[in-house]
């Protein structure tokens, strides 16, 4: 079986193949004898559907590739496009010798407008080029002369006026296919709206354009660009005018109202702050032009504010209790509440060393002297104590029933009160005395132990700050 090579991908194909099996390229000899190899678009149509959808239909002749806005739709003859405001749709067909283009601008609330482009890439022929050009010109002039008189009354015809006195004509001006006035509702955030112009006049004008609109004018269409409306509802009547005809359009634009204000993508924000001073940054997402921050307290403030974020700084919490506050971010009637929760300064402490001296007399009473080294933080001006608690070696409490050196439940104990003068205070050799006779253990030899604990009294109940390990000793009573 004989074969032939694809000119595009160099793949071998059967001699009778019309398209390349690999890349789909149409072989030139597939075109019928006497027909052009140029690709072109036939039966091109736009049909408006609901919800901003437009159905695009076409027939691609002699085309190897078909794209819509760069999307490959080869082998198809229809496509559904979704349009929000105004969008250009470009249908392009290609083969190895030429391409054809249909440009379509569709507007959500108007009819479609399009213009054609057909460009031949290469022409290779031994025929005399001048002869061909003259023949084409002759055919065009003949066709124009034959049909001009019949089309002057056709509203879709936009021919020149230079033969009108010979054939006679009726003037017309069509805006998007109509010569009647209309009201155009322009989106509040602004938009560019394109309108097709068909007229047999030599020129047209767009008059009475308001300051909030700009105009881009072409021979066959014009584009009105409206800005975002930040003031109040506004209306303007513009006129599209030729020498004999005029069409009025009413432009109506409601005021733009922002719909979105979020901080950290939320409507209510809870921020947990450390007890020490610091900073925190918030991200702002809004379609408004600006926003404001208010209801600030004395212990936090805004230090930077931009279009998309702001940063606040906050002071150290001097209290030993948690504190809360809030502020708001506002814009165009919208607001976001930001709650601040700052934890209390935590009192901390460490018992560094404990030493014991036995058989010490104080005020004529024999006992043991306990020396404690410790430090505390964030306890300035707060009452506290360093206490010592006594136990038997097996963990049972040692009793002191007379209450002189005992807890409320008669456990043998002693203490020394403290009230630090600084946020961070250190104590060395704090002396705590315990008489032996207050340890009610009876006669004989007893193995005992004790440990130390630091307390703070900033609230109604004592709070433990730090405690030591156990220290063992032997007590003998005769």
From TrEMBL:
Transmembrane segments: 129-150
One family name in Pfam for this protein: BACON
Domain BACON: 211-247
Record bears the keyword Membrane: yes
Signal sequence, start to end: none
Keywords per UniProt: Membrane, Transmembrane, Transmembrane helix
Protein name (database record): BACON domain-containing protein
Lineage: Bacteria, Pseudomonadati, Bacteroidota, Bacteroidia, Bacteroidales
